[in-house]
Amino acid sequence: MPKQKTDRGAVARFKITGTGKIRRRQQNRGHLLEKKSSVRTRRLAREVGVSPADRKSVRRLLGI
C-alpha cells in the first residue's frame, strides 16, 4: 500500500509548535517595504496561527 507523501512546499511554509499548533508567516512582507510603515512591517514579521478553516487541509499536506 503506498504511503502519503508530505508536500514539500507546505513543509517550507508551515511550522508545528511543541503543543501541536500550526504556524505560518504573514503576507505582504516580501518586497516593497519602503512604503509600508515600520509598525506594519514589525507586525507582519510575526508568525500567526493557521485559521481553523484551513487547519484540516494543511495537516493533510504535512502528513499529520
Verbal overview:
The chain is α+β, with helices and mostly antiparallel strands and 64 residues long. Helix content is 39%, strand content 12%. It has helices at 8-13, 38-45, 52-62; strands at 14-16, 22-24, 48-49. It has a three-stranded antiparallel sheet. β1 and β2 (22-24) form a beta hairpin. It starts with 7 loop residues before the first helix and ends with a helix.
Overall shape: elongated
The helix/strand series, from N terminus to C terminus, equals HEEHEH
State the low-pLDDT regions, or none. none
Q: How many E strands?
A: 3
> Number of helix segments?
3
In which range does the helix fraction lie?
Answer: 25-40%
The main pleated sheet reads as: 3 strands, antiparallel
Name the descriptors.
3-stranded antiparallel β-sheet; 39% helix; 12% strand
In short:
This protein starts with 7 loop residues before the first helix and ends with a helix. The chain has 64 residues and is an alpha+beta fold.
Any chance you could write out the topology, listing elements then pairs?
Blueprint: H1 8-13, E1 14-16, E2 22-24, H2 38-45, E3 48-49, H3 52-62
